[in-house]
Amino acid sequence: MNKEVDINELLKELSLSEKIGQLQQLASQFYIKDSEGELTGPLKDLGISEEKIWVSGSVLGVKDAEEARRIQDKYLDKSSTKIPLLFMADIIHGYRTIFPIPLAIGCTWNLNNAVLCGQVSAKEAALSGVHVTFSPMVDLVRDPRWGRVMESTGEDTYLNSVFGKAFVEGYQGDLSSNYNIASCVKHFAAYGAVEAGREYNTVDLSDRQLKEYYLPSYESSIDEGAKMVMTSFNTIHGVPASGSKYLMRDILRDNFQFDGVVISDWGAVGELQVHGVAADDEEVAEKAISAGVDVEMMTSCYINNLENLVKEGRVQEELIDEAVLRILQLKKDLGLFSDPYRGMDGDKAKQMFLCNEHKEAVRKVARESIVLLKNENVLPLSKDKKVAVIGPKGDSTDLLGGWSWQGRKEKITTLKENLIEGIGNNLISYAEGCDINGHDESGFEEAVNVAKEADVVILALGESSEMSGEGGSRAYIGLPGVQEKLAEEILRLNKPTVVLLFSGRPLEITNLSEKAPAIIEAWFPGTEGGAAITEVLYGDFNPSGRLTMSFPYATGQIPVYYNCYNTGRPKTSNTAETRYVSQFIDIPNEPLYPFGYGLSYTQFQYKDFTLSSDKMTKDDKIIASVTVKNIGDRKGTETVQFYIRDLVGSTVRPVKELKGFKRIELEAQEESKVEFVITEEMLRYYNIDSELVSEPGDFHAMVGSNSADTYTKKFTLL
Ligand code: BGC
User: Fold this and answer.
1) Residues 642 and 596: beta-carbon distance below 8 Å
2) What keywords would UniProt list here (predicted)?
3) How far is CA 167 from the centre of its chain?
4) Within its chain, how far is the Cα of 560 from the centroid?
5) Sign of the C-alpha dihedral computed for residues 309, 315, 318 and 324 taken in this order
6) Least CB-packed of 174, 177, 452, 509 within 10 Å?
7) pLDDT, tens only, 342-394
8) 201 Cβ neighbours under 8 A, 6+ residues apart
């Protein structure tokens, strides 16, 4: 039930300073602590006066429903406008019940999991007073040094686009239910392309790269109805994104027809001055509002300067009106004028947190996100064997990963505890060996002794949560500290050993992958991670995860991604011995594990790949079909991947591009025919004149179990 508010009428009633207030977002502390007394701490730092708090439009990050209610109450009491506050927060992969990190969710190649994550997160968050989540992050990522790859679904444009859509669908539904929240897509644009993967660094992309690879995922989330977009910290074409008319007016508003609210990233409006495109706060405000930022997060250039700028004629009041109307519309869409306390229900929230249904949901997604990278007859383990769990991740509660600020580590059952629960105390022994990042090797001896006593060893290694996420760039992306050394000591025993990795990014593990007979990537698997891993280790669940980001052979290879260009001198089997081809002289060109890769406890055979025709007109379709057979002796899920290559274009085209995928579950010895429909639309790209068109000519259709292992058929677009 939405009280009929005419937002245009409401706008007319607001003074200029009240309108500008709507454009300000402040963290929750501003409303509870400092507001009672003198200006201290954050208020002072922001150079904002107390009275301005009571005209501000939105709040960042509330603790719980009680706090949200208290803030809303106080605000409505003190504010002259009585327009309810909007509460926003980073709910990235769960609120209290935590899903695996988004990079892991991507590895399920199951869009329902993103919808589920969105729904469960929205429910817990909405009951806790949140109206908008700063998610999904759909930034395309090709550089695992960048800590924020954990927040993305990987290196592929198509996959990011469909996952972005699915998250938005999950969070928002149609927003009519109090269990849904609005979604803010971020970071616009191309934040994933920061140079050297260094956080907040420069991005300089060609327009072609931007349009072809980076922009589609934002667009598809917007098409799905995402209510908000967040700008990014980086530059694009020499202009910071938060001051870029090109990004916000030309692309976002004109091309994508986005009519929702644009918010800056934290402090990014103020940073226009630090970037060096504005001399002072006034110029910052003028540039950001003109470029199209509606809400300024956590700096105060608008609220302290826009009024003067309007009076001086440097900023048109209409610009402010447009921004305010978009914010009021969002408040209306969320029903805040009828119920400023929308959703907030602390008691109900507590019933939902970590309830069985939510725990089952996160466990399901965790299971499906685990990627089996190598297995030389070690896995699955049999339940009567003595197991030594070795390594700093074996008995660790640090399984939630970055952006899980509402998660509760103390509620986590560790891997060791799960194994004891499932297999029995007498069969499980444990030694930490070393810590995550230190250099102390004094625990090695005990670890080796514990391993010697066991039939099989699980080496639980990896990163801590702080090593990825925002501000978590790493230059060396191997295992931190002395973990690899510990692994070598243990592997020297030649026991059946599983290396079990926990990380927020693809790691450089080439040495380990040569020595270890089995490797599992478990990412940061969330609240039910330990249980999900136990199911995979013992074969109660047959692993089905597939990588959405290449594992580099060496850090010096980065960026390494599957949909690259061919170059004029590609390395082929014929040129392998030649010097003057595009290659490294010390390592292969190929990543260690490619995009789309992942093993199962069964095997799948591909046969009878056919196209319904080898030609099509622009109005035709071709059906590509392949039969996939489970030739092993247990049920398993295969992700059949479909790629296309445009052989000759007016500009160069990638060697392959993912155009579709299908997950199929097959019983032992069962086979199934899988079909993909090739349409003209699938063949479009930005041609030499930057028009999104298809060009007649030859194409390759490819199908396979990962990007490096495909079968090919040729067809022609007439
Ligand atoms: C991050 C955003 C986040 C925002 C609000 C920024 O530092 O880059 O992703 O949504 O903070 O917490």
Assistant:
1) no
2) Hydrolase
3) 10
4) 18
5) negative
6) 174
7) 999 999 999 999 999 999 999 999 999 999 999 999 999 999 999 999 999 99
8) 194, 195, 234
In 433-485, at which residue ranges do the beta strands (DSSP E only) sit?
Answer: 456-462
Catalytic annotation present for 633? no
To test the ligand 1 pocket, which listed residue (183, 229, 266) has its Cβ within 8 A of the most ligand atoms?
266
Question: Residue 393 Cα, ligand 1 centroid: separation in angstroms?
Answer: 28
Structure tokens that stand for 128 in this block: 């806790």
Burial class (CB in 10 A: 0-12, 13-18, 19+), 686: middle
Name, in order, each residue with C-beta under 8 angstroms of 508's C-beta and a sequence gap of 6 or more. 476, 477, 478, 551, 552, 553, 554, 555, 592
Beta strand 671-679 with 621-630 is antiparallel
CA angle at 576 for the pair 574 and 582, rounded to the nearest 5°: 105
Which atom from ligand 1 is nearest to the alpha carbon of 61?
Answer: 12
> What sign does the dihedral 709-519-417-106 (CA atoms) show?
negative
| pTM: predicted TM-score of the whole model, two decimal places | 0.98
What is the rounded distance in angstroms from the CA atom of residue 86 to the CA atom of residue 60? 9
Residue 516 has pLDDT above 80, yes or no: yes
User: What SS3 state is found at 663?
Assistant: strand
Tokens describing residue 404: 């899980």
Place of tokens 């309108």: 19
Q: Count of H helices and E strands in the chain?
A: 23, 26
Ligand 1 atom at shortest distance from the alpha carbon of 298: 5
Nearest to 99 by CA among 89, 84, 112: 112
